[in-house]
Amino acid sequence: MTAGSGIIHQEMPKGDQNGRMHGFQLWGNLPSSLKMTAPRYQEVKAAEIPLATDDDGTQIRVICGKFWGKKGPVDGVAADPIYLDVSVAPGRTKTLPIETTRNAFAYVFAGDGKFCNASAPLDVPTEGVRWADTSPPRTADNRSLVLFEGGDEVVIHAGEDGIRFLLVSGKPLKEPVAWYGPIVMNTQGELRQAFDELQRGTFLKHQK
After folding, report:
1. Would you call 61 helix, strand, or coil by DSSP?
2. Does residue 88 belong to any structural domain of this protein?
3. Total domains, the chain
4. CATH number at residue 55
5. To the nearest whole number, what is the mean pLDDT of the chain?
6. How far apart are the first and last CA of the chain?
């Protein structure tokens, strides 16, 4: 979903009979030129997400962007992200390419492993880690976030139960961020103006 100036949204997931739900929400900032863009929404079903399988059994679901000859169904995102759901078999070591012009992170949500080009797994909120750190990597277990600063590949060694993680990369906007509540702008002045317009009922500029 691209909110732009036309959608104020709230998610109310129901989950299973016990209220449990397993999912991820990733917010991507819009460049200043697109802050007031018309809203759009895209629904993608699981069957539409292509699966790429390598000879060693590594499986990658390509949600957004292009990888291993597959193209994900999610499109039109300003940061041009590559969003992958990666599964590596137990004990396997896998090298995955990353464009040097992109920022990248990995989020482990099943199993564990070692990201050999990262100094350590980090809890949210994160700080940058040196890509070429030569210290022995620590194991990144379930619910670990690893943030990379730069480089052209990620090397992962899966633990005894294998590992499944999101690998996400995108082009940096290199713009200042002013954020409060549901609105993200570039300056505090723009943020105050947006909330003033929201209170006056003039913020939503694209309505049906």
Report:
1. strand
2. yes
3. 1
4. 2.60.120.10
5. 84
6. 16
